[in-house]
Amino acid sequence: MLQLRPGCECCDRDLPPDSEDARICSFECTFCAACAAALPGGLCPNCGGELLRRPRRPANKLAANPASTQRVYKPTGCGKGA
After folding, report:
1. If pLDDT is split at 50, 70 and 90, which confidence band does 81 have?
2. What is the value of pTM for the model shown?
3. How far apart are CA 54 and CA 77, in angstroms?
4. Domains and CATH numbers, the chain
């Protein structure tokens, strides 16, 4: 099950579970649409994976399957790698 991380790793913008602006790779590194668009080739700076729109979990499923509250933020910015 997807973690649905709560924020962009680059700019720390909030990305709630119903956000249409969240982008993720197969490792669930999470970015906002603006930061993802600025990354070379639209690839994750951590793993090189393709960044795609994160699916939204239906609101009626969030109570039993809540989104993550763990933020991952890299104050050094995107593109530095992990």
Report:
1. very low
2. 0.87
3. 21
4. 1-58 (3.30.40)
